[in-house]
Amino acid sequence: DSYMRLGNYKMAIIYLDSGVTLAKESGKEIYIASGYKKLAECYEKINELSNAYIALKNFLKYKEIIEKEQKTRDFAILDSKYIKEKNEVEYKQRMLKEQQTKLYLSTFFAILFIIIAVLATMLFIRKRKAHKELQQKQSELNHTMEMLHESQEELITLNRELEQRVEERTDDLRAEINRRKIAEENLIQTRDNILSAYQREKELNQLKGDLINMISHEYRTPLAVIASSADLLKFFDKNRDEEKYNRQLEKINQAISRMTSLIDNVLTFENIKNIQENSNFVEIDFVNYLKEIVDEFSLQQKYQFDFVFNSNKEKINIFADEKMLWHICINLISNAIKYSSFKKEIIITINEFNTIVTLSIKDFGIGIPENDLKHIFDPFYRATNSGFIHGTGFGLTIVKNFVELMNGEISIRSSVNQGTEVLISFKKNKQIPNQNYN
Questions:
Q1: Is the Cβ–Cβ distance between 163 and 85 less than 8 Å?
Q2: What is the DSSP-derived secondary structure letter of residue 429?
């Protein structure tokens, strides 16, 4: 305690470890629990959170052992008191029964004595006093019966009082047991909350590390391309080597585009909550809207793809946020192009069924392994067969978030080297952003 007050937590930890060891050897759980609690405080002060968590976990373990032993002792004491009171009640009931038996015997002998006395009197006093004495004895007998009746009522009253006292004591014991159970449940809940908070902090640190690693890795390649192309431009004459000069400029532009795309994806992922709060749902001609996006991809010469567009109606209107819808379509079509190394064909289908509008984007590329499908929407996750194909692992995460914000559903069907189909369904009716989305 002195070292802790002075702020020398490392020396305090050394003495606390020794104290805990001695307490374990002597089997003093209360000192062990106290030592672990102070160790957790010292480790927390010097920011050793993992050791603090272990010490806190040991503290809760020994504290639970101490509470269980205390509860066992308390229950034994209560049980002993209950048995003692029960034995006292049974003893009093036996005594009352013996007294009642003695009273009946006394009454019997008293009546017998009275009868004998009456007979003797009748013999001595003869018939003259027989009638008077009979009346007197009858009066005495009635009085005795009344006394017996009163005694019996007193016995019944005493028995009821004893039963009530036993019942009240039993209720008190039940209430005490329930109170201790509630206290134990609250302690367990507190422990679970601490462990849950620790796990959330661990996940946030992992997410931050993944983000830093992804950005540093994805930026390294385009920066290297820009640097090498810029160096090569120094050796080219723009007039004589125009084709080589333009080729290097195109590489620089492509690298800049990759870096810009990475930044856009990161910012979009970070600002999903703001996009939700500032969303503006309007009526959109989905068929025409998607055709314009496809035309933009078709005009870019580097994408030599055949886009097949199908729809069961010429015009299909949906209520959606235009920014969210743009991110969904751009990401899905870009993925279909990026991972299609075999058959360069992409099939886009829009259909309307009553109150549901469905969108299907199908490619014939490398596909997604079955084991990767359950993680494909996780941030930073990329399929194991993506190889050297550049990507951030953010695209499908953003798509899924925006689809759910618009009260839609998304699913993926895929086979390796056969292609991938992304299926999305939206509600056609006018709607607002998903208020339950987190």
A1: no
A2: S
434: left (phi over 0), alpha (psi -120 to 50) or beta: beta
| Cβ atoms 66, 29 nearer than 8 A | yes
The series of mean pLDDT values per 10 residues for the chain, 438 residues long, is: 74 80 77 80 81 81 78 76 80 82 81 83 78 81 83 84 84 84 82 74 56 51 58 59 66 60 56 60 91 84 78 91 88 88 86 92 91 83 74 78 89 91 86 50
What residues have CB less than 8 Å from 257, skipping those under 6 apart?
A: none
Calpha distance 142→404 (Å, rounded): 94
Which residue type sits at 344? K
Q: Where are the beta strands (DSSP E) in 255-299?
A: 281-285
Q: Is 409 left (phi over 0), alpha (psi -120 to 50) or beta?
A: beta
Cβ burial 223-258 (10 Å sphere, 16+ → b, else e): eebbeebeeeeeebeeeeeeeebeebeebbeebeeb
pTM value is: 0.45
* Pick from 355, 393, 361: nearest CA to 377: 393
Q: What residue type is assigned to position 299 of the chain?
A: L
